[in-house]
Amino acid sequence: MSAFPALAEAIGQIEIVLVGGLVATLVLSVGMFASQGLGYSRLSLPFLMGFFVTGRRSRAAIFGLLLYTLGGWIFAFLYAWFFAMLGRAGLLLGVGTGLLHGLFLLTMIMPLLPYFHPRVASPYAGPIAQRRLQPPGFLALNYGRMTPITTLLSHAFYGAILGWVLA
Question: Which of 42, 72, 74, 106: disulfide with 143, CB 3.0–4.6 Å?
Answer without folding.
Answer: 42
